[in-house]
Fold each of these.
Amino acid sequence: MKKALITGITGQDGSYLAELLLRKGYEVHGIQRRASCSNTSRLDHLCNEYRDGAQVFRLHYGDLSDGPNLTRIIGEVEPDELYNLGAMSHVAVSFDCPEYTADVDGIGALRLLEAIRVLGLAEKTRFYQASTSELFGLVQETPQRETTPFYPRSPYAVAKLYAYWITVNYREAYGMYACNGILFNHESPRRGETFVTRKITQTLAYIAQGMESICYLGNLDALRDWGHARDYVEMQWLMLQQDKPQDFVIATGRQYSVRQFVEITAAALGMTIVWSGEGVDEQGVIAAIHGDKCDGVQIGQTIVAVDPRYFRPTEVETLLGDPGKAHAALGWRPRTDVEAMAREMVGHDLQNARRKRLLRSRGLDEELDGSKR
Ligand code: NDP
Ligand code: GDR
């Protein structure tokens, strides 16, 4: 039975990847940070996975900032595959904690690679680094492919640049099977609530149910190439199954603005948005509403507004990937388009909103706090 170790297993991608690897017959180990509240909600359904009487899913306490701890865990598990998905992954937050981000997202990758090397596992353990389209930042070529020069625009992206190159260096210096997946944005109902797509699907679902009134956003004109996390973790696994390690861009090749994502989500809830104002005065007004998904809103109600708090010191305005190499070499194609993904996300969030509304009507609901997003 192959063994995999996943950092960042409690996150969006970690949970989908763990499910995929368990389905493929792996024994799956994950590194979990100690937190004052539970951080395993995306994994709780896996915690009792047994095969032939043996537990095939195990969590280990650890942190990417703690080298000895990582070395001990890797030494104990001796994984065939190590997926480094752990990171301080929020671009805007990285401006607030740049040194921590550099330590975890940059040096964290080095700690893992060095542990594999000093433990004598360089020939056994295959290494996947969660690299990112944020490396392209201020884009030098469109669409972006494996050969496009990097120009990172945030402490997060600069830290990930280090991780990208140290992965390449360990491959070249020590002959390790180590590779970078340069993944463009990918989302799902498990996406963290402060990333823009999930913030939109969740807040609009609450608004549709009359439980919040306005979704405050930053740059509505940012353009992204959004795919589905479930499709993208398959690619992470495939990259470690090849004869030779290589780096791949993973993207859909289609681009949408934040504004369009709002419109797609609103449409899935039976609402049509008309935009008024410009730039920081921009507001999204509801022009028409249909059906029972949005009985909490009125025609003409403002449901989206721009709040400059969400602007970044340096913004990545546009990203569009060229997944041609992955198509040709690995036969991979994303299965889910942005409309289907938004429908799935908002369907999930609408169900939660309805449940909370019911609980609230019976005086049983916890506080809703939109300011957390
Ligand atoms: P999430 O933010 O959902 O998950 C991040 C994971 O990293 C969580 O499990 C988190 O733990 C863990 N983590 C954070 N800090 C540390 C630390 N100091 N030590 C150990 N673990 C830590 O991210 P995604 O699942 O969306 O992304 C996975 C990876 O892919 C990340 O590295 C991200 O930067 C990268 N990426 C993501 C893309 C996307 O669009 N989703 C695109 C390209 C790259 P906890 O639950 O305790 O917070
Ligand atoms: P990103 O994702 O920065 O691309 O990083 P995010 O969803 O945070 O932002 C996408 C774009 O939307 C604009 N935006 C807002 N963003 C947030 N979070 N909140 C808002 O209110 C808002 N309004 C507009 C942003 O300015 C940006 O242009 C994600 C992360 O998963 C990274 O870890 C990963 O590496 C990249 O995707 C690829």
Amino acid sequence: MKPDLLQMGPMYPPTQKVLDETYTLHKLWEATDCDAFLASVADKITAVGSTGGKGIDDATMGKLPKLKVIAHFGVGVDSVDVDAVKRRGLTLTNTPDVLTEEVADLTLAILLAAIRRVPQGDRYVRDGKWLKGPMPLTASLQYGKTAGILGLGRIGKAIAKRLEAFNVKVAYQGRSKQSGVPYPYYADLLSMAKDVDILIVAAPGGPETRGIVSRQVLEALGPEGVIVNIARGSLIDETAMIEVLKSGKLGAAGLDVFDKEPKVPEELLALENVVVQPHVGSATHPTRKAMGQLVIDNLAAHFAGKPLVTPYSG
Ligand code: 8YV
């Protein structure tokens, strides 16, 4: 008899294949009447698989009296009601570490793409404009730039390491000053934004951080300033960001995530000083495979009565 697993949404296909082979899967996203579906499986569900796009709320947890573990595909757990997990005495696992370097790579890619206008250069060549003359010159990541990292966790540190290799000075802001970190710490985000050229958003999403990159913070970066968001769209006041990018009060943006993704405001897409990506920080085959393996291993540990591999500790 295969154990029962409730899944909120589909995972990376090779991971999904393993889950299909290992478990009797109950796929909530395929149900037409979710309440009836949950009621029909409730007495056999001890574990749930969730994803960034399909998380789990308090009400759903409440309908699963035997639930013990939520195995989340992703490092960010903002699609899961973490307070409810704690209150209900459940355990949540996520997929840290294995995506750190990948996400840091894309951060540098979109930072450079935004400053050096890489997508625009590509279009310039393809559109035959180069035949008529050189592309206009761009801003530079060099000449003593400083980047402020909002959220110096695992990913923030991997970004910092790369920035150092690019001759960029690093500062950071977060919940607290960290010991053994060589970069200057700012207790206040606005103060850091005033002092840096580039702001890199790498902090967790969720209600606590919603909108913390405010209009004031964005304006403090200035007309030559650059914002890069690799974390969650919710951290930035998106309406304000569009306005300051449009008016030239902020220089450029490199964005992998958006507040209402996959919907991206048309006004943002109309701007030449913005480079966008479809939330692909961790989206490579080897990294998604490694993330999926952690989901598989955490579920296997749960059903074997062993300690979970990567319990969420945030
Ligand atoms: C995924 C992510 O897009 O790990 C995260 O927090 O944002 C991404 O790796 C997503 O969570 C997959 O479900």
